[in-house]
Amino acid sequence: MADSLERMTNLLALLLSSNRGVTLADIRNDLADFYGDGSDETVRAMFERDKRKLRDIGVPIESEVLGGGDAGRTRYTVDRRRFELADLDLEPDERAALELAVSAARLSNANLGLLKLGGMRGASMVFANIPDLPSLPVLREATARSAVVRFRYRDLDRVLHPYVLLLREGFWYVIGFDETRGERRTYRVDRIEGDVVMGEASAFERPADFDVRTAFPADARLLGDEPETTATVLVSTLRHGHERDLGSVVERRPDGSLVVEVPCANRDAFRSWLLGWGVDAEVLGPPDVRAEVVEWLRAMAGRS
Length: 304
Description:
- By secondary structure, this protein is of the alpha+beta class.
- It has 11 helices and 12 strands.
- The strands form 3 sheets. A 5-stranded antiparallel β-sheet has the order 7-6-5-4-8. The protein has a 4-stranded antiparallel β-sheet with strand order 10-11-9-12, with helices on one face. Strands 1-3-2 form a 3-stranded antiparallel β-sheet.
């Protein structure tokens, strides 16, 4: 089950990123990993609990019953005038010092206070995990305004139509259509290099069939720059009950070992998975992945 703090953080981020407000259907779709499962009654009950908790800590969530073709539906918004503090006119070094103090103290109430300072929306709610993400407010505004963004990621220039921002296991991800790749991509925000440049508003439309439940990989090893990348791994000793974690089995050898194909778009997650098997797993290919793992192991051995 998703962590309730992450769920409420994502809910608040969604409410702040929308100028028109969101309905429960929007919340269920955009935050599918947190609200997507279960009956309508279960999802509504979960949302009502989260809404009440956010209101209890001072978030002015307002509701409006819609009419016309949307009759019977309710739209939810956050009143920014009541939510955001008046501008304290802090100098950049003063703001940085305040952020650093909150990051070191890891106080959730202080994080909420920083969130109320206009111009820092979203970044400080996860300061315990991400101390400084200057690109996050730009990405949130671009998502709300349907503006194309440009940034560098893994030494390559990207041009992205940002569809949604999500917090997952302590990290923010932006999901959208990458013009440079010609397909949908997921990028971890803290790995963006340099500034994010936002273009004109209303530059694209998010596809009607966009579904976070399928757009955001459930397996962390798929979260990378090359979603289809797989490695071939020889597992010499199969541990009881662990075969389901192996990926696709492509060969079963007479000695009981297995050759499997494992997602490795996210090399950090792949190496973590590989390390869990110790000497029982050997990367057979592709050559670049094997060479990278060998170099990583040698570096680890040199530091020990």
